[in-house]
Amino acid sequence: MAAKKLRRAKLSQELCERLSRYQITTCQDFLCLSLLELMKVTGQSYRNVQKLLRQVSLACAPKMQTAYEMKVRRSVNPSSAFLSTTLHSLDKVLHGGVPCGSLTEITSPPGCGKTQFCIMMSVLATLPVSMGGLDGAVVYIDTESAFSAERLVEIAGNRFPTYFDSDEKLFCMTRSIHLYRELTCDSVLKRIKSLEEEIISKKVKLIIIDSVASVVRKEFDTKLQGNLAERSNFLARGASLLKYLAEEFSIPVILTNQITTSLSNGLAIPADLVSPADDLFLSEASQRQHQAKKQDQTWFSAHKPALLSVPLGFSAACCGSERLSS
């Protein structure tokens, strides 16, 4: 909640513009300053600054709600609680579809159709509510340059030929999907930070990041000292911001995660994206497995290599994410 923009804390436009000149744009930026610093940047008295602090604190403080209220809200309008995948078996497992208000992680080895699934979900989010959609726009952050506009139109036309029966409807659908190609961790994080105002102005109903693993794998080598901490910090900050956006606006957020790790006779574990605890576990496991290799050589040679699905880790898990693995 501290990531909320000051404009949404009901501060005057003049004050928000003045604070932005000092790079103070969120509630967190404001609350991290001392009273003297706030008096300097706002030009207001000690008493007025105290009032501003209370106002901003109340604006970003999470509102208390009971479990009963959450249950009633979902039961009154169940269609707003999920975005259906239109895949009956998957919706049944997910109890309705991709949940709104939380993070959903799609994990699988490369080439299993994660991007195709994300493109399909983009189309579904633009559909009217009467057709199971969210009747809104989509922010699609592509870190692998894998998004295809041609494939988007093809999926829309094939899945819903009666609805997308004209070029005009296809054109309106494509205009509702806002694509950003971000190829570094810093650019991804900056984009996530700027999404709040975009969600409001463009009526965004779905956020997709495809994929988180791509930028992390390129920039962080866990064998180098210090990289593990930096990577964990990036994942924690990103997950926290995305959780805030999902909960604040009650929209689904979908992230994809590439899994290329395999267990073979040598038991090599070059994990692409794991949490700090996972890294420690894998490090210790590799030593134990090296010792057990001679004893279990016969057993492993009789079995085919198996895929090891490594999730985003505790950063995403603590943000209440759903995880779909294939």
TrEMBL record:
<dbReference type="InterPro" id="IPR013632">
    <property type="entry name" value="Rad51_C"/>
</dbReference>
<keyword id="KW-0238">DNA-binding</keyword>
<dbReference type="InterPro" id="IPR058766">
    <property type="entry name" value="HHH_XRCC3_RAD51B"/>
</dbReference>
<dbReference type="GO" id="GO:0000724">
    <property type="term" value="P:double-strand break repair via homologous recombination"/>
</dbReference>
<feature type="domain" description="RecA family profile 1">
    <location>
        <begin position="79"/>
        <end position="259"/>
    </location>
</feature>
<dbReference type="InterPro" id="IPR016467">
    <property type="entry name" value="DNA_recomb/repair_RecA-like"/>
</dbReference>
<dbReference type="GO" id="GO:0005657">
    <property type="term" value="C:replication fork"/>
</dbReference>
<keyword id="KW-0234">DNA repair</keyword>
<keyword id="KW-0233">DNA recombination</keyword>
<keyword id="KW-0067">ATP-binding</keyword>
<dbReference type="GO" id="GO:0003690">
    <property type="term" value="F:double-stranded DNA binding"/>
</dbReference>
<comment type="subunit">
    <text>Part of the BCDX2 complex consisting of RAD51B, RAD51C, RAD51D and XRCC2; the complex has a ring-like structure arranged into a flat disc around a central channel. The BCDX2 subcomplex RAD51B:RAD51C interacts with RAD51. Interacts with SWSAP1; involved in homologous recombination repair. Interacts with HELQ.</text>
</comment>
<dbReference type="GO" id="GO:0000400">
    <property type="term" value="F:four-way junction DNA binding"/>
</dbReference>
<keyword id="KW-0539">Nucleus</keyword>
<dbReference type="InterPro" id="IPR003593">
    <property type="entry name" value="AAA+_ATPase"/>
</dbReference>
<dbReference type="InterPro" id="IPR020588">
    <property type="entry name" value="RecA_ATP-bd"/>
</dbReference>
<dbReference type="GO" id="GO:0003697">
    <property type="term" value="F:single-stranded DNA binding"/>
</dbReference>
<protein>
    <recommendedName>
        <fullName>DNA repair protein RAD51 homolog 2</fullName>
    </recommendedName>
</protein>
<comment type="function">
    <text>Involved in the homologous recombination repair (HRR) pathway of double-stranded DNA breaks arising during DNA replication or induced by DNA-damaging agents. May promote the assembly of presynaptic RAD51 nucleoprotein filaments. Binds single-stranded DNA and double-stranded DNA and has DNA-dependent ATPase activity. Part of the RAD51 paralog protein complex BCDX2 which acts in the BRCA1-BRCA2-dependent HR pathway. Upon DNA damage, BCDX2 acts downstream of BRCA2 recruitment and upstream of RAD51 recruitment.</text>
</comment>
<dbReference type="GO" id="GO:0140664">
    <property type="term" value="F:ATP-dependent DNA damage sensor activity"/>
</dbReference>
<comment type="similarity">
    <text>Belongs to the RecA family. RAD51 subfamily.</text>
</comment>
<keyword id="KW-0547">Nucleotide-binding</keyword>
<dbReference type="GO" id="GO:0033063">
    <property type="term" value="C:Rad51B-Rad51C-Rad51D-XRCC2 complex"/>
</dbReference>
<dbReference type="InterPro" id="IPR027417">
    <property type="entry name" value="P-loop_NTPase"/>
</dbReference>
<dbReference type="GO" id="GO:0005524">
    <property type="term" value="F:ATP binding"/>
</dbReference>
<dbReference type="Pfam" id="PF26169">
    <property type="entry name" value="HHH_XRCC3_RpoA"/>
</dbReference>
<dbReference type="Pfam" id="PF08423">
    <property type="entry name" value="Rad51"/>
</dbReference>
<keyword id="KW-0227">DNA damage</keyword>
<dbReference type="InterPro" id="IPR030548">
    <property type="entry name" value="RAD51B"/>
</dbReference>
